[in-house]
């Protein structure tokens, strides 16, 4: 019994944050008598192909019993804010619409993805977070832009 509970907890924790994300913090939004509360979590995401850019992604996390065992379908609402935090270096070629981060939002059918675009004419990186479903998509999305600027170091 303890092994099964430990396995369920480990699975829930593994699904909690996107790969490559560092959890900054969470706030409870709905109290649940059984299982964890519903919450909104904020993660810091570094772009693997672009040094000097960090995105902060907020997303709802479904609690309760189904959330605890990883069977809940999380809402599509998410927000993203990306900023230059150092000299921007593009490490390799960028593809427009490339998935930078991905996370399952339900067991089978729903994913949250952060996609990157490079507006070369205006020298801007664009990050779009959108939730998609196997059967039907979701128009809920959020967008953040990062102008590629010289980085001034006062050191």
From TrEMBL:
The keyword Signal applies. Pfam families: CreA (PF05981). The keyword ATP-binding does not apply. Keywords: Signal. InterPro entries: Uncharacterised_CreA (IPR010292). Coiled coil: none annotated. Residues 1-21 form the signal peptide. It comes from the Bacteria. GO terms for cellular component: cytosol. This is CreA protein.
